[in-house]
Design goal:
single chain, 3 domains, Dna Ligase, domain 1, alpha+beta, 5-stranded antiparallel sheet, 11 helices, Rossmann fold, 37% helix
Length: 343
């Protein structure tokens, strides 16, 4: 059997460059070499596409020579629909969500707004642009203090790995947190903190008929699960599977699939929830369309606990990428009217 050429694309021009490299190494290591020929493509921080030896390459020519692309770029310019648009233009199959789902899920404000429309519970939130803040700082601060209660979490709308996120417990911290978040995006969300919150995660896999993994819990080493707690100090703990009432587990898994479908996801996503264990209420925090694939990442760990080993998970993701490409290839992109134009 001819081996499948898989272009593992990583790096990128964003704040998650280093995380992406570690994820890609793990994927390449776990790809079944009897089935696949992995082709490493690194995008440098200066936006130069390079091969395994560091030599600059032509992106389009390279993509046309592979069988499928596996983008492992977390955050902007990789998880936001931009590189997915390139794959669509080149007509190369690829792993993961398409353009629309990637763009929607990357923008937390848009994602949350759409989920609320379909009655998926999310924490109360407010979003603002950089221009809003520059022109109406006092008005916005007063509005937030009148309609929300501390603590609040302030986040860049288009970032991942908790980059740019801060917790605010008073007006001074709120203002500082908003200005800090604007260093990483032109849109920021202010989110109501959930009391008694436990961080619960669920992995989703599939195209038209997605399935969900068991649930896992993150016990952060810091006040909240920030970048340092995720990748630096190594002291955060994971509980897989987490013990929750069956009704709560089913409700979280159901909302994970519902959000996945509402947001037009395909291939994979990780759904992150906050669970108020005292009031027995859960809230969708966000969906990540290209979650981490490092050795400590929750997405593969949750599937392993659900009975799918890492290498088999990669098999399924590649298969799903081919299936979606085949389905889209059936679409007629040309149209010839029955009569000539009158122009």
């Amino acid at each position: 059997m001819k081996k499948i050429k898989v272009a593992v694309i990583f790096g990128g021009t964003n704040t998650e460059h280093e995380v992406s490299i570690v994820s890609a190494r793990s994927i390449i290591k776990n790809l079944d070499k009897s089935k696949y020929t992995p082709i490493s493509i690194r995008i440098t921080k200066k936006n130069i596409w390079t091969d395994q030896k560091g030599k600059q390459i032509d992106p389009i020519k390279t993509l046309k020579r592979v069988d499928i692309a596996f983008p492992v770029i977390h955050g902007p310019f990789g998880e936001d629909g931009t590189i997915q648009g390139l794959f669509e233009m080149v007509r190369v199959p690829y792993v993961g969500c398409g353009v629309l789902a990637s763009a929607l899920c990357m923008d937390k404000a848009s994602q949350k707004s759409l989920c609320l429309r379909y009655n998926i519970p999310t924490p109360l939130f407010f979003w603002l642009t950089n221009n809003d803040w520059k022109t109406s700082k006092q008005k916005i601060s007063d509005y937030i203090e009148s309609n929300y209660t501390y603590p609040l979490f302030i986040k860049p709308s288009n970032q991942g790995s908790s980059v740019g996120i801060s917790k605010a417990t008073n007006i001074k911290e709120l203002v500082s947190a908003i200005e800090f978040a604007f260093e990483y995006d032109t849109k920021v969300i202010v989110e109501q903190g959930i009391k008694n919150a436990r961080e619960i995660e669920c992995s989703v896999l599939g195209n038209d008929n997605p399935k969900v993994s068991v649930l896992g819990e993150i016990i952060s080493s810091n006040d909240f699960y920030d970048y340092n707690a995720k990748y630096i100090d190594g002291s955060s703990e994971e509980v897989i599977p987490v013990k929750l009432p069956k009704s709560i587990t089913k409700a979280i898994q159901s909302d994970a699939i519902k959000a996945y479908q509402i947001l037009s996801c395909s291939g994979l996503a990780r759904a992150d929830f906050l669970y108020d264990h005292k009031n027995k209420k859960h809230y969708l925090s966000e969906l990540n369309t290209m979650p981490g694939f490092t050795s400590i990442s929750m997405y593969p760990k949750l599937w392993q606990a659900s009975g799918i080993k890492y290498s088999k998970l990669l098999d399924q993701l590649i298969k799903l990428g081919f299936e979606r490409h085949k389905e889209k290839s059936k679409i007629n992109y040309s149209y010839k009217p029955k009569t000539n134009w009158h122009i």
